[in-house]
Amino acid sequence: MNSRMWTMGGATFLGLALLGNSGVGQAQSTFNQTTPPAATQAQAKERGDIKSDRKELKDDRREIREDRRELKDDRRELRDDVKSGASREEIRKDRQEIQGDRKEIQGDRRELRHDRQETRQDRQETRQDRRETRQDRREQRGGGSGGDGPRGGGHKGGGGRGR
What we know:
Blueprint: H1 10-19, H2 23-31, H3 37-84, H4 88-141
Helix pairs in contact: 1-2, 3-4
């Protein structure tokens, strides 16, 4: 037979006995507390900001690839001009163009690196805010520290995701 037995802790049973028939509804309502709308909206805004930042990073990487293609074409043009015996003025112009492309790529890479660092920092702050919000909710419910494991997960398997 496949029968399941439901057990109740002593405190839960006592609480339900004291509450009478309406105890189930009241017990459920205590567990359905949600985060205040302002906090949820702020978190959603942060997630949206991070998502748009990631899209901008993707666009910046695409732009750098295009700049590198332009640099490659300019180098090819310089080689062709040198082989064909073009004037010194034409060769000088090609070299200046290549130098300008290099500086542009270098600046774009620096900017991309800086933007990635900012995005990483924003993600870490958002993650920390979520952890603090979860901890606050546990404390409001009377959950305490959340467990005595090294990560405070409080689950049988120990420590959350396997990182």
